[in-house]
Design a protein that fits this description.
The structure is a single chain. This protein is of the alpha+beta class and 78 residues long. The protein contains 3 helices and 4 strands; from the N terminus they run E-H-E-H-E-E-H. The chain has a single domain, classed as Glutaredoxin. A 4-stranded mixed sheet has the order 2-1-3-4, with helices on both faces. Helix 1 links the parallel strand 1 and strand 2.
Amino acid sequence: MNDHNITIYSTPTCPYCDAAKDYFDENDISYTDYDVSENREKAKEMIEKSGQRGTPVIDIDGNVVVGFNKEKIESFVD
C-alpha cells in the first residue's frame, strides 16, 4: 500500500491539509509535502497540475485530488 508516489501541496494554516497528512500518516503511507505559501515554484506547479489555487492539492501517481476527498484518495491508494 506504500508503493505510491504522493505529493501534497499544502499551507500551514489549512485544516484540510492537516487532515490529509494525518490520514496518510495514520495509514503509514509516505508522501512529500510542499508548503506552497513558502515555495513559489511548487505553488506554480500545483496550479499547473490542478488549475486550483486552494489547498490541499494531492498528486497520487499522477492522479490529482483537490481537497481532502478521502474516498477519492482511497480509490488511488488501495
